[in-house]
């Protein structure tokens, strides 16, 4: 059977370390199911800036478009932090998301039973949490025009961005969220700031209108500030959350602490046609880069989401997730999750262990 074409974008910081581990595990899991992969490596972020001066070289976008799927680790780092916004590594990532129209960012925040006591929150609060954050990814304040720097009437220097959504943009992400809710607990919470922002008023109106097509889904609305609080007070309230680009960014990092580490959260960014982007929620972790300390589990589970959503090889996805589950069962923990009574492992060691377990 034909090899699955995967564009591999390791990026910066811990990116190459977790990508190394994930590719090994993915290859091993594929072998067990008779599936093979053709990995095409490409540059993005700081690594691409250093090599070409551009955080998203044309060649990289072409390779991604010609692939079945894109596996991305993380971009960014201290070295590029002083570049102007338009030339930063982050622009490469945003350009890739926009270039592939990957508007629906699915960020599951699940607390594995083995980690129920790894959260800074009480075990009773986080035990059994299973949330899906559906984050709009190619609109909102990240992309709105006008943006830039200027001068106000008083002559002070200003920076500005525009939070903007069109009705079709809200409608398409709402449909993704309602459809996801139908396959889960059938509860959808739309998170916005409609008590203050016009962009959120429009968001809410459109979500309410779209809800008529999904009468089996119970819809609720929450302001972002309250949602940030409820996520800690009673995370089990949430089934599917749908929200805009920046609120989804913040809520998903917050949600990672239910499981105790940002290194546990995978994501899928999909358009519904063409290749999706599969990447951990976390960044390049420059504070621990190059030390073999990173947790590769979010990366491995992102590869699992790729197998399920894009490559349609659910058995390989099952193997990857089962291997992570077993490693947790065996008490193997990278530094982010290590505590008394568990076994401290390096990123590469955990990768090798997962290869044995798939
Ligand atoms: P970060 O997510 O990189 O790190 C935040 C904290 O979590 C750090 O202490 C880090 O060590 C820890 N952490 C993150 N992932 C981990 C893992 N897998 N295992 C163990 N610990 C982990 O966020 P930041 O420090 O705010 O940003 C660093 C850089 O990453 C910035 O340049 C930022 O723009 C970029 N970033 C990129 C992405 C992406 O590529 N998708 C996402 C977020 C941030
Ligand atoms: C994420 C990251 C990115 C975002 C940055 C690096 C552009 O924080 O994937 O969550 O804000 O979307
Ligand atoms: Mn983020």
Automatic annotation (TrEMBL):
GO terms for molecular function: 3-isopropylmalate dehydrogenase activity; magnesium ion binding; NAD binding. GO terms for biological process: L-leucine biosynthetic process. Pfam families: Iso_dh. It catalyses: (2R,3S)-3-isopropylmalate + NAD(+) = 4-methyl-2-oxopentanoate + CO2 + NADH. It is an enzyme of class 1 (oxidoreductase). It is found in: Cytoplasm. Coiled coil: none annotated. GO terms for cellular component: cytosol. Keywords: Amino-acid biosynthesis, Branched-chain amino acid biosynthesis, Cytoplasm, Leucine biosynthesis, Magnesium, Metal-binding, NAD, Oxidoreductase. InterPro entries: IsoCit/isopropylmalate_DH_CS, IsoPropMal-DH-like_dom, Isopropylmalate_DH. Its main location: cytoplasm. Its cofactor is Mn(2+); Mg(2+). Pathway: Amino-acid biosynthesis; L-leucine biosynthesis; L-leucine from 3-methyl-2-oxobutanoate: step 3/4. HAMAP family: LeuB_type1 (MF_01033). Catalyzes the oxidation of 3-carboxy-2-hydroxy-4-methylpentanoate (3-isopropylmalate) to 3-carboxy-4-methyl-2-oxopentanoate. The product decarboxylates to 4-methyl-2 oxopentanoate. Homodimer. This is 3-isopropylmalate dehydrogenase. It comes from Monoraphidium neglectum.
């Amino acid at each position: 059977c034909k090899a699955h074409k995967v564009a591999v974008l390791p990026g910066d910081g811990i990116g190459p370390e977790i990508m190394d581990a994930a590719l090994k595990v993915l290859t091993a899991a594929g072998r067990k199911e008779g599936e093979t992969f053709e990995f095409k490596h490409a540059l993005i972020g700081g690594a691409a800036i250093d090599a070409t001066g551009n955080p998203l070289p044309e060649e990289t976008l072409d390779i991604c478009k010609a692939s079945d799927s894109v596996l991305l680790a993380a971009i960014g780092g201290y070295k590029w932090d002083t570049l102007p916004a338009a030339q930063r590594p982050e622009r490469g990532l945003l350009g890739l998301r926009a270039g592939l129209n990957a508007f629906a960012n699915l960020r599951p925040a699940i607390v594995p039973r083995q980690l129920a006591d790894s959260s800074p929150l009480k075990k009773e609060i986080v035990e059994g949490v299973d949330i899906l954050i559906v984050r709009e990814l190619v609109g909102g304040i990240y992309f709105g025009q006008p943006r830039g720097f200027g001068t106000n009437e008083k002559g002070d220097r200003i920076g500005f961005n525009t939070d903007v959504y069109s009705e079709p943009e809200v409608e398409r992400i709402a449909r993704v969220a309602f459809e996801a809710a139908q396959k889960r607990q059938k509860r959808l919470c739309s998170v916005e700031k409609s008590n203050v922002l016009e962009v959120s008023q429009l968001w809410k109106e459109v979500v309410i209108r779209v809800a008529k097509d999904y009468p089996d889904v119970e819809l609720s609305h929450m302001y972002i500030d309250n949602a940030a609080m409820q996520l800690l007070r009673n995370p089990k309230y949430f089934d599917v959350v749908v929200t805009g680009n920046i609120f989804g960014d913040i809520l998903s990092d917050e949600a990672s602490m239910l499981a105790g580490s940002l290194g546990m959260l995978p994501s899928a960014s999909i358009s519904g046609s063409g290749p999706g982007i599969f990447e951990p929620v976390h960044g390049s972790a420059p504070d621990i880069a190059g030390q073999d300390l990173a947790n590769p589990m979010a990366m491995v589970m992102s590869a699992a989401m790729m197998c399920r959503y894009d490559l349609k090889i659910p058995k390989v996805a099952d193997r990857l997730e089962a291997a992570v589950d077993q490693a947790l069962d065996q008490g193997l923990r990278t530094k982010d999750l290590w505590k008394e009574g568990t076994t401290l492992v390096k990123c590469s060691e955990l990768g090798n262990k997962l290869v044995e377990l798939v």
